[in-house]
Design a protein that fits this description.
heterotrimer, A alpha+beta, B mainly alpha, C mainly alpha, B: mainly alpha, two-stranded antiparallel ribbon, 12 helices, 2 strands, C: mainly alpha, Ferritin, 11 helices, globular
């Protein structure tokens, strides 16, 4: 079968406000609108008040688990992570 | 037990690949032992990946094929309530298939490839779905026995070592709760009905009992791969353990229904507290697995037909998306 | 005919439409072109069965003879069902099913939107629940029609043919009778003439996006073979649909399931 497959989309759901979107799984769809419909049918069974994000899987950029240590261990020269690096101009309040 | 070790007979246990060092395998095993979850991009032995892929895809195929024997009675369901409940159940099965294909795809195989393997006969699905649903009572029997058996395996799988599979199983288990109850409820109604209905229920039990026991796969002594799967926490209990548990739980339910389990050797063992039961007809089991059950051909033909009939639709959807992707980008 | 008689007939027609199209959708289970569509189709069928049950339950109360949802669904003979011919036509291929869904649901949605404000509280409540579902159905089906119409040459050709085949059954939606008149007058129900205009506009909009054109047929009112559902005069297909659906209850009279 040389048929071109429908692309894969990853699905993220926020089941109610206040929570963040969580990865639920994936669906195949031919276009974005279809992906939303399919995600809703598959992962929420059309529950109301649910927020859905769908993203083409091939558009997601991910870290490599092997890099974990490098990403998350604060290294001394990466001072831009710390708020003290930024000079706040005079006159700016509440920062 | 949609994962009954279907294509293990005669195959030798896989040895690690040349480039997999003892240290890597060791480190991996330590993670599994510590109940660490293995995620999609984590290092894993190739044999682990392949076994999981086979198990998850077989499970997915089983859900999809399983829609057919039950779907058979949708148009003929005897009340609107039963029709709606059965429809919800069959819909759930499609959904479960989707979750499982989705989990399997994280292991590096496309859904299209898995479906192609199913239709070519290369990939297997649970043998139970190769039996015909001849009466409405069969729908009750399937919910009660087949889903009952499935639940026994599915709950431990919620704790399996592979993250995406475990999470799919959690989703499935949440939705599964009503499936078995609806089946038992049908049997209960029949067992309290007319003589014809009671006979219908007994006949269904007669035909579905042994195939349900076969769902748990070969005896442990015949299952070479079980030990490795258990060490990797892809399988949490042995075939015989689960089968015994199923019998112990289900026989009293049959008694409650006033039905006779079709096993002359079934009896409670005072010493062990478990039921002793007769020998499974293993020849039938392997025949059905090999493609010679009552409905094997029919199930695959139906699925193939749907796939073929839908080709022009899928192609049209792609064509439309391609045409309009250009427009969206230009906007 | 009193307003109450008309209301009962009207509710039963609504129930029958929902049941029959629901049954046709059920027949599509395991035959859909993609797994995700199986889920969508089953959802839609479930909605329709649910609506049928609501309409029938209310009808039973209105009638006051102790009949329940299953009495209406399983123990009436063919000619007592008053659904549109459109909904009882066989499914055909996916394109046929989508065309039928768009044509019928474009009408049903407009009908429900009017019934939300009708003078019968219970009917208005049921309509309010159904309208959300049908709005979703129609959006899904319309999008599919657009994809198929504007997809490949083959898909365009197929749905064009489907459109030609199903169009002739749409006229029946708007050929009202005494019941429709009474519902409009006494319960502030839909005016079928204005509904026809809205329907036409809505369908034309979808067809345009699908690069399809309205068939030339202009709903010939005198051709009774394209209408008759309101009077219980069905197509030949209906007998088979009913036989299959009702078989168990007919074979085991009085049994509980």
């Amino acid at each position: 079968m040389s048929e071109k497959e429908w692309p894969l989309y990853e699905v993220f759901i926020r089941s109610r406000s206040g929570l963040s979107h969580r990865h639920a799984g994936s669906v195949h769809a031919a276009d974005d609108q279809m992906a939303l419909d399919h995600a809703r049918d598959t992962y929420t069974r059309r529950m109301e008040g649910v927020s859905l994000w769908v993203v083409r899987s091939d558009l997601i950029v991910a870290s490599d688990p092997a890099d974990t240590a490098a990403f998350f261990e604060p290294a001394e020269d990466k001072i831009y992570r710390h708020p003290t690096f930024y000079e706040i101009p005079d006159g700016v309040e509440n920062l | 037990m949609y994962t009954q070790g279907l294509d293990q007979k005669g195959k030798k246990v896989e040895s690690p690949l040349a480039q997999e060092s003892a240290d890597q395998l060791d480190a991996f095993q330590k993670r599994v032992d510590a109940e660490d979850k293995i995620e999609a991009k984590d290092w894993m032995p190739e044999a682990y990946r392949r076994t999981l892929l086979r198990q998850i895809s077989q499970h997915a195929h089983s859900e999809i094929i399983g829609m057919q024997p039950e779907g058979n009675w949708l148009t003929r369901a005897p009340t609107l309530k039963r029709k709606a409940i059965l429809l919800a159940k069959v819909q759930d099965e499609a959904g479960h298939g989707l979750y499982l294909y989705s989990a399997a795809e994280t292991l590096g195989v496309s859904r299209d490839q898995m479906v192609a393997d199913l239709l070519s006969g290369k990939a297997k699905y649970s043998s139970i779905f190769n039996y015909p649903t001849l009466t409405w009572a069969d729908i009750g029997a399937i919910g009660w026995l087949v889903d009952g058996a499935a639940i026994m395996n599915q709950i431990p799988l919620c704790r399996c070592s592979y993250g995406p599979y475990a999470r799919a199983m959690v989703r499935i288990c949440k939705e599964e709760s009503f499936h078995q109850r609806q089946g038992f409820d049908i049997m209960l109604e029949l067992s309290r009905g007319s003589d014809e209905q009671k006979a219908m229920a007994q006949d269904a039990l007669n035909r579905w009992w042994w195939p349900s026991l076969m769902m748990f796969g070969p005896n442990d002594s015949e299952s070479k791969h079980s030990a490795q799967s258990m060490a990797w926490k892809i399988k949490r209990f042995s075939n015989d353990e689960l089968r015994q548990k199923f019998v112990d739980v289900t026989v009293p339910q049959a008694e409650f229904l006033g039905l006779r389990v079709p096993d002359e050797e079934l009896s409670i063992n005072e010493k062990t507290g478990h039921y002793d039961f007769g020998e499974i007809n293993w020849q039938e089991f392997y025949e059905v697995l090999a493609g010679n059950g009552p409905c094997n051909r029919q199930r695959i033909e139906k699925r193939t037909q749907a796939q073929d009939d839908g080709a022009w639709v899928r192609e049209a959807a792609r064509a439309y998306a391609d045409k309009h992707a250009g427009k969206a980008a230009a906007a | 005919m009193t307003g109450q008689d008309a209301l009962l007939s009207y509710i039963l027609r609504l129930g029958d439409n929902a049941l029959v199209i629901g049954q046709r959708m059920i027949e599509r289970v395991t035959g859909e072109p993609e797994l995700e569509e199986e889920l969508a189709n089953a959802n839609f069928a479930l909605d329709y069965i649910g609506q049928a049950r609501m309409f029938y339950a209310y009808a039973g109360e209105l009638e006051g003879k102790g009949r329940g949802e299953d009495d209406f669904a399983y123990l009436r003979d063919g000619q007592e069902f008053r659904n549109f011919l459109m909904v009882e036509q066989p499914n055909g291929h996916f394109g046929d099913a989508i065309v039928r869904q768009v044509l019928f649901e474009s009408f049903y949605l407009l009908q429900l939107e009017k019934l939300i404000d009708c003078a019968d509280t219970r009917l208005a409540e049921i309509a309010a629940r159904a309208v959300k579902e049908i709005r979703y159905h129609l959006r899904h089906a319309s999008q599919w029609l657009i994809r198929l119409g504007d997809g490949t040459d083959e898909s365009h050709e197929r749905v064009n043919t489907s459109l030609g085949q199903f169009w002739r059954y749409a006229g029946e939606f708007f050929h009202g009778d005494d019941v429709d008149d009474l519902i409009a007058q006494e319960f502030d129900g839909p005016d079928l003439v204005s509904l026809a205009r809205s329907w036409r506009a809505s369908v034309e909009s979808v067809l345009k996006q699908a690069t399809l054109s309205i068939p030339d047929d202009t709903f010939d009112q005198t051709a009774f073979s394209k209408a008759g559902g309101r009077a219980g005069m069905h197509s030949e297909y209906f007998g088979f649909l009913i036989a299959e659906m009702q078989h168990l209850q007919r074979a085991f009279p009085g049994a509980n399931w």
